[in-house]
Design brief:
The chain is an all-alpha fold and about 180 residues long. It has five helices and no strands. The chain is elongated, with a radius of gyration of 17 Å. The termini are far apart.
Amino acid sequence: MSQKLILIIINVVFGSMVLLSYYHGVGKMKSLGKDPSLLWGGVPDTIQPFIVTFMFLGAIGYAFFTYNFLFNVNPDKVLFLNKFKYWTLYVLYLLVFIPSALWIYQTMNYMNSGTQIDWIITVGLLFTVAISSIFLLLFTIDLQIENKYMYLASVIGALLFTFHTLFLDGLIWTVFYHK
């Protein structure tokens, strides 16, 4: 099977799982008579629209750098950071998708239990995504493809995605959740 096809399958299958987990998680909260906005914790209402905006910008950026990995890279010849083969992308994408799909359920577990271990797991999921995003950003910067406009769009996209996962989810949400 083509290495690029595997990356497409990972994106379609696990990307769908993330979207479905959010849809199902919000629906589950509503069915339990809980307000889904409780997932924001103590994040101030004034910055929630900023975070949501960057969620969409990060998703658009994700599309650009993923397109780049799929259409502007030769899997047999690329060596990211002079060390990592193309299949490393599978691991990084899975380390973005799987924790992202688990996050809403783990956050609901924490909301119900209030235990420190559930909080650590919740934050650990966010930081797993953030660290993987940093590697995707570094891989994107390292590519230096011929089309400079696509390269720039991919790097900006990876920066937006990493900003969202590292700073907004990994730090801002985590710090403000208990305020």
